[in-house]
């Protein structure tokens, strides 16, 4: 072996030895401040919701403040069917979306009953009627539909409170659901830098080429200097 080759190998060995072993196994990347803020707003939404399942409060604290974008969120994710939304004012549409989401989050602790008896208790016929309610076909019907959402929400709250008082299984499900939300931590990736996406997005939720992040089912954008949620994707089986 030549002296030069031997010296080169010694330098390489010494360099490797001087690096702490745990750094050889894993190198943690630093995420841009915008990414850190985006993950935090998702975590804040879940933790606020976990306090008392108040969707309205969590929405106001973490979602877009732009009225036009809020309207787009309601149309895209409210599952209101396909009426002509141009005749429906912003406040009615956005409030109806909040009611729909509030009802959904109150139902989540009861999702996927463990047995037929739980299904009967959790989702009796009057509650299934709420779940099966069809969206309005026209803008004229939307006002009465929105009012019905308020009634449905009040009815389901009373049903849920009765279940929690009378059935330990329902109370345990609620405690578990809230605890999971309160302990939610949106962990930043440690092995790659999160980059924004710029591809087209359906539903008029953002401008052409506007940067956004997809984080654990949330879509987040920068709006007026702050990271704000514009979409949540939820998939579950209620019964």
Overview of this structure, please?
The protein has 239 residues and is mainly alpha-helical. It contains ten helices and three strands. The chain has one domain. The protein is flat, with a radius of gyration of 24 Å. 23% of the residues are buried.
Query: Biggest β-sheet, characterized?
Result: 3 strands, antiparallel
The coarse overall form would be: flat
Class from helix and strand fractions:
mainly alpha
Proportion of β residues?
Answer: 5-15%
The tally of structural domains comes to 1
Order of helices and strands: HHHHHHHHHHEEE
Helices and strands in order:
Elements: H1 3-18, H2 21-25, H3 33-52, H4 55-62, H5 67-77, H6 90-107, H7 116-122, H8 125-131, H9 139-166, H10 168-182, E1 213-215, E2 218-223, E3 226-232
Antiparallel strand pairs: 1-2, 2-3
Helix pairs in contact: 3-4, 3-10, 5-6, 6-9, 9-10
Gist of the model:
With 239 residues, the protein is mainly α. It has one domain.
Main attributes?
disordered N terminus, mainly alpha, 56% helix, 7% strand, 10 helices, 3-stranded antiparallel β-sheet, 239 residues
């Amino acid at each position: 072996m030549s002296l030069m080759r031997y010296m080169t190998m010694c330098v390489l060995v010494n360099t490797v030895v001087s690096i702490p072993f745990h750094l050889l196994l894993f190198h943690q990347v630093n995420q841009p401040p915008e990414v850190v803020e985006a993950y935090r707003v998702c975590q804040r939404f879940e933790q606020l919701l976990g306090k008392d399942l108040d969707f309205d409060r969590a929405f106001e604290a973490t979602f877009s403040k732009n009225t036009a974008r809020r309207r787009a969120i309601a149309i895209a994710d409210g599952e209101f069917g396909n009426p002509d939304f141009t005749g429906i004012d912003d406040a009615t549409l956005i409030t109806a979306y909040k009611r729909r989401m509030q009802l959904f989050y109150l139902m989540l602790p009861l999702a996927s009953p463990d047995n037929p008896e739980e299904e009967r208790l959790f989702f009796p016929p009057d509650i299934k009627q709420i779940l099966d309610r069809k969206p309005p076909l026209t803008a004229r019907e939307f006002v009465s539909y929105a009012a019905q959402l308020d009634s449905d929400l009040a009815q389901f709250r009373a049903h849920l409170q009765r279940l929690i008082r009378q059935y330990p299984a329902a109370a345990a499900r609620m405690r578990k659901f809230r605890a999971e939300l309160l302990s939610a931590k949106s962990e930043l990736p440690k092995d790659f830098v999160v980059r924004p996406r710029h591809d087209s997005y359906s539903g008029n939720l953002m401008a052409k080429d506007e940067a956004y992040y997809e984080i654990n089912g949330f879509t987040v954008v920068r709006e007026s200097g702050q990271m704000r949620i514009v979409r949540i994707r939820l998939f579950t089986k209620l019964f």
